[in-house]
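Example 3.2
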Amino acid sequence: MVVSLCMIAYNEAEAIQGLFSDISLQDYPHEKIEIVFVDSMSTDSTYERMEKFKNTDYGFMDVRIVQCAKRNQAFSWNAALMTATGDVIIRVDAHARIPRNFVSRNVYNLKQGENVVGGGRPNISSNVSSWKMTLLAAEDSLFGSSVAAYRRPSTQKEYMDSLFHAAYRRKVIATVGGFNENLGRTEDNEFHYRIRQAGFKMCCCPDIISYQHSRNTLKNMVRQKYSNGRWIGLTVSECPGCLSYFHFAPFIFVVALIALIILAIFGHPFLLYILLIIYGMFDFVNTVGCCTVKNMQPQFALLPFIFPLLHVAYGVGTIVGLLQIPFWRRKIRNSHAKEHIEKVKRKVIKHTVVRDYE
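Structure, written as tokens:
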């Protein structure tokens, strides 16, 4: 099977160096790997580093570089899909690291009859320090980040609603088309929702693993959570079916907190005390859990303050997103997102190559 390994990037010159090294060391036959890089008009040396990789002879079937004028992630991924010619299309984030057998294990599991496969995607930190390890602990925690099962290595094959760094048979993309360019951070959710609606299953396999660099500063982590929450709010008006109840947990917490604070101001603080006690118990238990599971650092003492900061940022983001829906709908009224989804489908079908594997 020919594999198209795709990556998009904007100003990721430093981050992609490690990934490029990982790609060059893949144990799957290089003559069966097509590399597709999409540069979203970076202003640093991202494009130059892509060119350097292309001009270095690693024995790959082909290395293609596409430049996109838009910095929209969905637009860039669509460009990658329309460029890829492989029987298998694998998405890898610019902030990722992959083991030597990443491509080969994906192909192996697809050959077992699956259509979409992936594996655990734990977080790693690019710098080892007490503070960075503390942020990593917060990001890895179910309480601090997400209940998404793909964030942790799987012990057995199981089917999930979503996967990260997934590998897709070409026929999956030919059936559902590309990404919805109206969406920001939730384009994966909506894309995978359409895949499930089309009857395909997404299999998380224990022998597949990749890694994602966590944010290295609290400011960037809070900003990421706010943006994630905001896009959850906006996506309610575009594709509510692709969201789960868990996406709204921070929103419910923040709304309840605001309501109970107002109630307390008017002389009824009892319910606020109950909410804070219950939340405090979860906060404490998960902090202890991080200290037990992780290599404890002195700054882990800050986790009880980091957790609520991340939750509030996410919840406030969702509130803002919901309030922005009317303005956002007017903004995208004349967008061609649905036409672009179909355009990707037509391109993928047109570029499909029937290969003899005898």
